[in-house]
Amino acid sequence: MNAIQQAGQKGQVASVKLLINGEWVESKTDHWQDIINPATQEVLGRVPFATTEEVNAAIDAAQQAFASWRQTPIQARMRIMLKLQELIRAKAKDIAKVLTAEQGKTLSDAEGDIQRGLEVVEHACSVGTLQMGEYVEGVARGVDSYTVIQPLGVCAGITPFNFPAMIPLWMFPMAIVCGNTFVLKPSEQDPLSTMMLVELAIEAGIPAGVLNVVHGGKEVVDLLCTHQHIKAISFVGSTAVGTHVYNLAGQHGKRAQSMMGAKNHAVVMPDANKQQSLNALVGAAFGAAGQRCMALSVAIMVGEAKNWIDELVEKTKTLKVNAGHEPDTDIGPVISTRAKARVMDLIDSGVAEGAKLHLDGRQVKVPGYEQGNFVGATIFSDVRTDMRIYKEEIFGPVLAIICVDTLQEAIDLINANPFGNGVGLFTQNGATARTFQNQIDIGQVGINIPIPVPVPFFSFTGSRGSKLGDLGPYGKQVVQFYTQTKTITSRWFEDQHDAGGVNTTISLR
Ligand code: NAD
């Protein structure tokens, strides 16, 4: 691979390259971080924290490439995306293996991560109809008005560790197909699979400078947020960093959007289909070891549904904790030893604060992978809203259960939570579902769907504390995010000699 310099000698590890102006560049930095397999602690490679000069060079390359890229016919841009989707599809299984090794999720979930990103690339192929302007003929005598939807210039994307395929693919394909150039800053924890996708994008025909990649942490991100040539920043990650990015970029005159942390609830009504609902709860709470921004972290059992808790616990006990590449694994490791320590601390806090522990994942042992960052599925009930396990995003396989008497209590509880990413309702009653979707103040609602991540023709519409900025990260909304509208009012005189008279008013006649 070009994006990753393979180890030459024994004892060396592969190093990840920067992509600047179409060249794969070995960073000159002296700050590197190991990329670690969370199931084994094996070092898979190392990633540079790019120098200021390197970040500036990437942005300058993108700035220079913009002049010709924006003039490239829209069909030519779409055709590159058509090729890219073909290449990703062909390589999906290879990318999934690397993704599982560096991120920990199961192989089938890694394939899902790539598939959801691939769907955004497919959608990018229809930008011709998404980037159309409007035209009104005859707004005054001989005068027409129309809009053109133009790219912004250099845009940047900053991505988190939990979806190293899907989230980069939310960003650069749509930005680039709209005529922008791009600087991507992948997660430093698992950049290998992202770089495989970037390599395919170059193979698909994205010209030099149109897509650039820099690696690093806060310093690199801050440079992107403050550089004069960057016009828009799309961020996905934690609430603390997303808020910082949104504010810093805004202070420097950039358009910004931040998709951030969450605490997603599911409401289970007593009239729900029990088996379907419990299966959905288990999958959404513990899949990807709970490391999804749309993971289910709180189940609210309404009325008699409280009697289903034991069965939920029994179903959860059947989940297999193991390395993601092992067959039949349900729960892989969490991303790092630090993440594991945080999840363990939160489980400890739940016990200390008096929640009832039904299933304890703290002692899980995985034969053959004793060093892995494993946490088993953990279930608490009797959870109060003042407990840390309710208030904080755990980002681990931990489900908190709260029992209430009515749907209205459930709605009020959820609406009082500061986050607004996703919510689910399980019921067989259409009127209940309608009331819920109308009253719930959460941006993405699933009715008998546990993880309602919208498909790419819509957009990701998290709300309140889970999002800053009006527009979502893909779909129609992101075309608005990555473009600006220019309105043109034109008059063509039919008669060369019709000079009209001087008009000192503001009206068009
Ligand atoms: P993170 O905020 O730690 O990192 C995200 C990005 O920000 C990375 O590229 C990282 O290098 C960079 N970064 C880290 N610290 C920084 C700092 N101090 N200043 C500037 N940049 C910094 O997030 P993560 O741990 O990689 O991802 C998990 C989080 O992402 C969870 O909170 C999850 O809910 C959230 N997430 C949200 C969505 C969504 O769509 N709402 C999707 C996926 C993940």
From TrEMBL:
Aldehyde dehydrogenase domain residues: 24-488
Enzyme class: oxidoreductase
Entry-linked InterPro entries: Ald_DH/histidinol_DH, Ald_DH_C, Ald_DH_CS_CYS, Ald_DH_N, Aldehyde_DH_dom, MeMal-semiAld_DH
Keyword Oxidoreductase: yes
Superkingdom of origin organism: Bacteria
Keyword field: NAD, Oxidoreductase
GO biological process terms, semicolon-separated: L-valine catabolic process; thymine catabolic process
Gene3D superfamilies assigned to the protein according to its UniProt record, in alphabetical order: Aldehyde Dehydrogenase, Chain A, domain 1, Aldehyde Dehydrogenase, Chain A, domain 2
EC number: 1.2.1.27
Keyword RNA-binding: no
Gene Ontology MF term list: methylmalonate-semialdehyde dehydrogenase (acylating, NAD) activity
Family recorded in the similarity comment: Belongs to the aldehyde dehydrogenase family.
Protein name: methylmalonate-semialdehyde dehydrogenase (CoA acylating)
High-level lineage: Bacteria, Pseudomonadati, Pseudomonadota, Gammaproteobacteria, Moraxellales
